[in-house]
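Researcher: We plan to redesign the surface later, but first we want a full-length starting point. Tokens attached.
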């Protein structure tokens, strides 16, 4: 049976979902927005770099609640509302979160809009280390 995780100190959900669902050592994180968990009604950060950094912080927060970190991430899906303008700066900010030899598989797509007027959203899949 999967475990459904919703954390009180995590970002406030913008829709009906769990922060993460876990089954058989696989952990699937819901797409994170660039909202501040400590001030969910505050304006979003300005620009793709600041929003990407906030999204990565939110993913890190959820992973941390599960006893994991970004080194456990095996795949990311990234969504950008202005792909052509933001893709290079997004890549620079995103890349700072992973060592060059441990980058997860990734798909990045341009979309017409995201919740809360965000420029970026990222979801991911992580894998727990095998015990024993």
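Model: Full-length starting sequence:
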């Amino acid at each position: 049976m999967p475990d459904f995780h919703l954390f009180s100190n995590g970002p406030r959900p913008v829709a009906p979902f769990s922060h993460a669902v876990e089954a058989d050592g696989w952990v699937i994180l819901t797409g994170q927005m660039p909202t501040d968990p400590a001030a969910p009604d505050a304006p979003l950060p300005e620009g793709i770099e600041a929003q990407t950094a906030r999204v990565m912080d939110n993913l890190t927060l959820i992973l941390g609640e599960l006893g994991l970190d970004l080194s456990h991430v095996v795949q990311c899906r990234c969504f950008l509302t202005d792909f052509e303008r933001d893709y290079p700066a997004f890549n620079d900010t995103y890349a700072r979160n992973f060592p060059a030899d441990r980058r997860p598989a990734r798909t990045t797509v341009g979309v017409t809009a995201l919740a809360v007027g965000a420029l970026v959203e990222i979801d991911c899949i992580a894998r727990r280390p095998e015990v024993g």
